[in-house]
Amino acid sequence: MTEQKSAAVDTAEVKRMLDKHKAKMKMSLSLCAHCSLCAESCFLFNARNKDPKYMPSYKFINSIGKIYKKKGKVDKAMLEEISVNAWKRCVLCTRCYCPFGIDIPDMIALARSICRSQGVFPQYDE
Amino acid sequence: MHCCETGNALTMVAHMELSNLFTADFIYNLARGPLVWISILICIIGSIARTVQLLSYTRIKTIDPNIDFSSIRKKPPAAKGGGLPEPGLFAVLKGTILGVSPVTILVSLCFHICLIIIPFFLLAHNLLIDDAIGFSLFSFSERFSDFLTIIFLACAAFFLFRRIFLARMRAISTFYDYVVLFITVAPFLTGFLAYYQIFNYKIVIILHMLAGELMLVAIPFTKIFHMFFFFIGRFMIVNQHTMGKGSRTW
Questions:
Q1: CATH of the domain at B45
Q2: CA-to-CA dists, residue B167 to A36, A64, B163, B172, angstroms
Q3: Does the CA dihedral B171-B172-B173-B174 come out positive or negative?
Q4: B85 phi and psi, to 5 degrees?
Q5: How many structural domains does chain B have?
Q6: Nearest residue on chain A to B55, alpha-carbon basis
Q7: Rounded to an integer, what distance in angstroms lies between the CA atom of residue B186 and that of residue B163?
Q8: B233, B237, B241 member nearest A97 (Cβ)
Q9: Residue B168 is nearest to which of A23, A55, A99, comparing CB atoms?
Q10: Which of A45, A21, A36, A39 is CA-nearest to residue A111?
Q11: CB of B137 within 8 A of CB of B120?
Q12: Residues of chain A found within 8 Å of residue B230, distances taken between Cβ atoms
């Protein structure tokens, strides 16, 4: 997985994208009870020897959650780290199940959009 | 609070007043009286405000009148057993979280039921409520409340150990998660100790009242608000796993 190493991160643009989905994201992040009951609903979690890094909640807390915590002030290195959670560990199959009905795939998709807007995305053809 | 031996009379008086202010009796009366009402008010008003806030984030879903929904949703989706020939109970449960982690779900169910019913139907609470407002709900026998409290504390211990010892829980746990668990369990633990008069009763009962008030205040402003979000998120806001039809969307 490689990423484009171009200009610095446009934090204002990241903030704008965050604000557009702020309500849903804020509620989802603040009310996730960290119960880990979503784990088994992820086929990648099951396939990767139940590695916690593949748990849906881990992926959404460590992608969009991280960006939200920093209020959009992220750097390229962090976005690259996040892109691993948003692409490599999640295929957006939307099968994950949260007892509270938190829309995890939507959160991860938003993290992808933010990464992509800053030129951080996997390029498999290189 | 100890008074200074030295110093002029004025500072001594000031210190004495300060030390009087924080006697056990004073805190006891404060916690037993005004703080109860303040915390209940904060809990109710805060919960309503946060529910309104949450609903204001969502809007009513617009449905295309041309779509005939009667033909849809007659059959459960394949993942829920639709299309399979008459699945048995275990086959249906297999893919659900109840089927995957039955112990955690059952413990969670007991925990939450006890959490709600114990304080409302406890004899000692109802006597105080009856004293204050003239009527109260019926009460469980003290033995039964005791039994429920022990179940509750056991369930809480299960949650704590789960958070400490399971790798998947450690991966997402923060200090805040422990704080929330502590806020929830503290009133029950101190109440249990007070009932059996373990340690100094006066101090334990003060801690019990303060812990209960802290929990009431924490309900709207912490993760404990999931008690309301659960119903809104599962039944009202449309998502892939909505129960029922769902009338709102983000």
A1: 1.20.950.20
A2: 10, 22, 8, 9
A3: positive
A4: -75, 110
A5: 1
A6: A23
A7: 17
A8: B241
A9: A55
A10: A21
A11: yes
A12: 99-100
- Residue A124, pLDDT score: 76
The pLDDT profile of chain A, 126 residues, written as one tens digit per residue, is: 444 445 577 878 888 888 888 888 888 888 888 888 888 888 899 899 888 889 999 998 988 888 888 887 888 888 888 888 888 889 988 888 888 888 888 889 988 998 888 888 888 776
Which residues of chain B does A101 touch, with a Cβ-Cβ cutoff of 8 Å?
233-234, 237, 239, 241-242
Res B88: pLDDT: 63
Containing structural domain, residue B129:
27-52+97-225
For range B184-207, the mean pLDDT: 89
CB-closest option in B54, B108, B171 to A27:
B54
B149 occurs within a structural domain = yes
Query: Any idea which residue has 């109970």 for tokens?
Result: B89
A24 phi, psi to nearest 5 deg: -65, -40
Is residue B91 a part of any domain in this protein? Answer: no
Distances (CA, A) of B124 to B129, B136, B141, B192, B215: 9, 11, 10, 12, 18
pLDDT class of B92 with cuts at 50, 70, 90: low
ipTM of the complex as predicted: 0.83
